[in-house]
Design a protein that fits this description.
The protein has 89 residues and is α+β, with helices and mostly antiparallel strands. The chain has one domain: Alpha-Beta Plaits, CATH 3.30.70.100. 20% of the residues lie in helices and 40% in strands. The chain has 1 helix and 4 strands. Strands 2-3-1-4 form a 4-stranded antiparallel β-sheet, covered by helices on one side. Strand 2 and strand 3 form a beta hairpin. InterPro entries: Dimeric_a/b-barrel.
Protein backbone atom coordinates (compact mmCIF):
# COMPACT_ATOMS: atom_id res chain seq x y z
CA UNK A 1 0.00 0.00 0.00
CA UNK A 2 1.14 3.52 -0.75
CA UNK A 3 0.26 6.46 1.46
CA UNK A 4 0.26 9.97 0.00
CA UNK A 5 0.59 12.73 2.56
CA UNK A 6 -0.28 16.25 1.44
CA UNK A 7 0.39 19.00 3.98
CA UNK A 8 -0.47 22.68 3.67
CA UNK A 9 0.12 25.72 5.84
CA UNK A 10 -3.09 27.73 6.19
CA UNK A 11 -3.28 31.52 5.95
CA UNK A 12 -3.97 33.12 9.33
CA UNK A 13 -7.62 32.85 10.38
CA UNK A 14 -8.64 30.72 7.37
CA UNK A 15 -8.59 27.19 8.80
CA UNK A 16 -12.37 26.68 8.40
CA UNK A 17 -12.15 27.65 4.71
CA UNK A 18 -9.19 25.32 4.18
CA UNK A 19 -11.05 22.44 5.83
CA UNK A 20 -14.10 23.10 3.65
CA UNK A 21 -11.99 23.14 0.47
CA UNK A 22 -10.22 19.89 1.37
CA UNK A 23 -13.46 18.21 2.48
CA UNK A 24 -15.65 19.30 -0.46
CA UNK A 25 -13.14 19.50 -3.34
CA UNK A 26 -9.93 17.64 -2.67
CA UNK A 27 -11.25 14.49 -0.94
CA UNK A 28 -13.97 13.76 -3.52
CA UNK A 29 -11.46 14.21 -6.38
CA UNK A 30 -9.00 11.86 -4.70
CA UNK A 31 -11.64 9.20 -4.02
CA UNK A 32 -12.77 9.31 -7.67
CA UNK A 33 -9.18 8.72 -8.83
CA UNK A 34 -8.36 5.15 -9.79
CA UNK A 35 -6.51 3.32 -7.02
CA UNK A 36 -7.53 5.57 -4.12
CA UNK A 37 -8.83 3.44 -1.26
CA UNK A 38 -9.35 5.98 1.54
CA UNK A 39 -8.81 9.57 2.61
CA UNK A 40 -8.36 11.15 6.04
CA UNK A 41 -8.13 14.82 7.03
CA UNK A 42 -5.92 15.91 9.95
CA UNK A 43 -5.61 19.45 11.28
CA UNK A 44 -3.13 21.32 13.47
CA UNK A 45 -4.65 24.29 15.27
CA UNK A 46 -1.32 25.69 16.47
CA UNK A 47 0.68 28.52 14.98
CA UNK A 48 0.76 28.34 12.03
CA UNK A 49 -2.39 26.32 11.41
CA UNK A 50 -2.01 23.46 8.96
CA UNK A 51 -4.06 20.76 7.31
CA UNK A 52 -2.97 17.30 6.18
CA UNK A 53 -4.70 14.96 3.77
CA UNK A 54 -3.62 11.34 4.03
CA UNK A 55 -4.74 9.14 1.14
CA UNK A 56 -4.17 5.40 0.78
CA UNK A 57 -3.57 3.83 -2.62
CA UNK A 58 -3.25 0.30 -3.97
CA UNK A 59 -0.89 1.60 -6.70
CA UNK A 60 1.30 4.65 -7.18
CA UNK A 61 -1.10 7.58 -7.48
CA UNK A 62 -1.30 9.88 -10.45
CA UNK A 63 -2.95 12.71 -8.55
CA UNK A 64 -2.29 16.39 -8.00
CA UNK A 65 -4.07 18.19 -5.20
CA UNK A 66 -4.04 21.54 -6.94
CA UNK A 67 -4.54 24.88 -5.21
CA UNK A 68 -7.70 26.70 -4.09
CA UNK A 69 -8.70 29.78 -6.08
CA UNK A 70 -8.00 32.30 -3.32
CA UNK A 71 -5.18 32.64 -0.80
CA UNK A 72 -6.39 30.12 1.80
CA UNK A 73 -3.01 28.35 1.80
CA UNK A 74 0.50 29.76 2.01
CA UNK A 75 2.48 26.59 1.26
CA UNK A 76 1.78 22.96 0.35
CA UNK A 77 3.76 19.83 -0.40
CA UNK A 78 3.06 16.15 -0.98
CA UNK A 79 5.06 12.99 -0.58
CA UNK A 80 4.51 9.29 -1.16
CA UNK A 81 5.24 6.86 1.66
CA UNK A 82 5.29 3.09 1.44
CA UNK A 83 3.92 1.05 4.31
CA UNK A 84 6.15 -1.59 5.86
CA UNK A 85 4.86 -4.66 7.60
CA UNK A 86 5.79 -4.81 11.26
CA UNK A 87 7.37 -8.07 12.36
CA UNK A 88 6.99 -8.92 16.04
CA UNK A 89 9.29 -11.65 17.34
Amino acid sequence: MIVRMWEATVSSGRLDEAIAWVRHDLVPRALRTSGCLAAEILIHEGTPESIVLVTRWDLAPVFEEGWPSDEILTRARAQHLKTLRTVID
